[in-house]
Amino acid sequence: MKADMQEAPVKSGKTALITQSNYIPWKGYFDLIASVDELILLDSVQYTRRDWRNRNIIKTPSGPLWLTIPVKVKGRYQEAIDEIRIADTSWVDTHIRSISLNYKRAAGFQNISPWLFDSLAAAANKESLSEVNESLIRSICSQLGIATPIRRCTDVLDRASMQKMEPTERLLELCHSVGAKRYVSGPAAKQYLDVARFDQLGIDVEWADYGGYPEYPQLWGSFDHYVSIVDLLLNAGHDAGKFMKYM
């Protein structure tokens, strides 16, 4: 056990994480995955523009840089995340070039970049944003040694039925369907999640705590915890797990 890291919570019954897929998410996203028994990707909900679904941040000498996957959204503002299609497959060349230029000096670049660029290239063959994200999330989990099973929400519940449910009901039904007794959520959901309804069904709600992360050797200015996981992987290499909580 790492002396300066937080212990994973003692689990009572199956624990589920239900969340939207993001593009190359930050380390906290993967820490949540590592802390649960199952991840359910909730991509049947409405796509949100200017969010983390199709973009993320890396560091550069000139400051933060957004890496964005171009998607077809004009006139399709009501579409679900898993209905969003990629507008231009050349995004992967731009992203690989940007990562190479800004991380070639990183300590883990030589060891990690071949795997990372292969993973990006493989994901670029997918037609939908949801498939791109899932492909990369699975690849990054494997690289980090995270063995948590991953399922799509539509593999658990009927899509049409879920669309008729309000948010808390949908989460409850997903938890119930996979036999989860604990539900882990990001702290932002405190504003809308009806915890009392979870209590009524005997499902404990646990709020993620993103504090207490140690810093690692990071390029380009003051330390930033909230950048894409590729920053940690390329800077720390195979020691990346040492700078996470539940690895």
Please characterize this protein's 3D structure.
With 247 residues, the chain is of the alpha/beta class. It contains eight helices and seven strands. The protein has helices spanning 27-34, 91-103, 109-123, 129-144, 159-163, 167-177, 195-200, 229-236; strands at 14-19, 38-41, 55-60, 63-68, 150-152, 180-185, 204-207. A five-stranded parallel beta sheet has the order 5-2-1-6-7. Strands 3-4 form a two-stranded antiparallel ribbon. The termini are close together.
Using brief descriptors, characterize the structure shown.
247 residues; alpha/beta; two-stranded antiparallel ribbon; 8 helices; globular; disordered N terminus
How is the topology of this model organized?
Elements: E1 14-19, H1 27-34, E2 38-41, E3 55-60, E4 63-68, H2 91-103, H3 109-123, H4 129-144, E5 150-152, H5 159-163, H6 167-177, E6 180-185, H7 195-200, E7 204-207, H8 229-236
Parallel strand pairs: 1-2, 1-6, 2-5, 6-7
Antiparallel strand pairs: 3-4
User: Strand arrangement, largest sheet?
Assistant: 5-2-1-6-7
Mean pLDDT figure: 94
Our estimate of the beta-strand percent is 5-15%
Number of helices: 8
Work out the number of β strands: 7
Helix content: 25-40%
Structural class: alpha/beta
Per the principal axes of the C-alpha atoms, what is the gross shape? Answer: globular
Radius of gyration: 18 Å
**Helix/strand order:** EHEEEHHHEHHEHEH
Distance between the termini: 9 Å
| Unreliable residue runs | 1-11
Task: Tell me the major beta sheet.
Answer: 5 strands, parallel
